[in-house]
Amino acid sequence: MQNVKEYISQHKDRFINELIELLKIPSVSADPAYNQDVLNTADAVKESLEKAGCDKVEICETPGYPIVYGEKIIDPNLPTVLVYGHYDVQPADPIELWDSPAFEPVIKKTDIHPEGAIFARGACDDKGQMYMHVKALEYMTSTGNLPCNVKFMIEGEEEVGSESLAWFVPRNKEKLANDVILISDTGMIANDIPSITTGLRGLSYVEVEVTGPNRDLHSGLYGGAVANPINILTQMIASLHDENNHITIPGFYDKVEELSREERDEMAKAPFSLEEYKAALDIEEVHGETGYTTNERNSIRPTLDVNGIWGGYTGEGAKTVIASKAYAKISMRLVPGQEWEEITELFKKHFESIAPKSVKVVVKPHHGGQGYVTPIDSIGYQAASKAYEETFGVTPIPQRSGGSIPIVALFEQELKSKTILMGFGLNSDAIHSPNEHFGVWNYLKGIETIPHFYKHFTELSK
């Protein structure tokens, strides 16, 4: 019976070409202009699951974009792994900062990826990592190495809040019943230092609108006499952090989980070079909450960041105008214990309270989700650890992530299942940024490692 390394070697070019074809489809869920492309991607995922060996594959309609569901049930008495992923991607903007078109994938060598990396929007987040699971299933079914049952749930709205998934999961608990959920939408420390994500931050995402006069005004005739919404908005945003970069919203930290000194010391054992971190980002100094390290700031502490701000005239040349309105999009990353809906309400109440009477403020909540921590003594984590040990030759490090996958908490609530986060991307892969990429080595290493998880999870479940 052919082992996984031999199978990958034999089919390597096809695996890469199939992913490239998938990456060519601009499945941008945030922009209605790409509606048909998103639907076409769902069709492509369905076809790939059928070819990989699923006995049943269907496109499940939702109030929004469809969910692709597939299954391969070999014995109801055996454990069932539910694989989650998403086929939608972030917008490519700013397009002018891409070295090659976002939806015309190219393979280029880099210092970190000497074997080459696939540059395209969605290469790492999450088409490349999702497709690893499809190809791992193909190997297991075609060689008779599938040791348990598998189900797939691939959605098309992860990048816009997974509202339809929240609708779909409670209505399909029996269809989605499983013993463990497997997700590859995270990363690892380095190619020679594998890690398993054990914690995720939650998220509250809002948009704010500040309105001053009832129309745009001439800045000479009215400047200094009426409130400028852009000036006011920037002042309000600046006040959301104090001199220690502590968030000033009353009640914001009330439910923040404070890790023990012992836990923080364990986190500190993960290899990290502050100088290399700064060099990679081309910054002279890091920035963040006083009293915490860089790795703590971006994983176990909550944050508040402006993701976009606009208003007035931004075209070529000059236009002397006081804008009627100014806007900003703001995200807050939350830690376990913080309820995203409560934090959204605290933000709304505070932001409205600090607005001067010379303007009107509207806070529009977009989406959010809870943080999550998975225990390292679970069967799922142990199976993942053994899988990495076999393919990487070293024991992976448990690591909390600063990112958010809001549906993980939903899965535990509705399906009563733990989630294992086996990511193969790197921090340098530029997800959500221009020139996103995914190492060819990482892609193939994921395909190699995933079948070992199935084997160990089945054995440990006996």
Plain-language structure description:
The two termini are 24 Å apart. The relative contact order is 0.19. The protein has helices at 4-23, 35-52, 127-142, 163-171, 219-222, 229-238, 261-267, 274-281, 294-297, 340-353, 379-392, 407-415, 440-460; strands at residues 56-60, 67-72, 80-86, 106-108, 117-119, 149-155, 180-183, 195-200, 202-211, 217-218, 303-311, 321-322, 325-334, 360-369, 372-373, 397-400, 419-421, 437-439. It has 462 residues and is an alpha+beta fold. The chain has 13 helices and 18 strands.
Residue runs with pLDDT of under 50 for 5 or more positions: none
Largest sheet properties: 6 strands, mixed
Per DSSP, the total helix count is: 13
Proportion in helices: 25-40%
Question: What structural category arises from helix and sheet content?
Answer: alpha+beta
For the biggest β-sheet, the strand order reads 1-2-6-3-7-17
Cα separation of the termini:
24 Å
Strand content: 15-25%
State mean pLDDT (0 to 100 scale): 96
Number of DSSP strand runs: 18
Shape by Cα distribution: globular
Task: Give the C-alpha Rg.
Answer: 23 Å
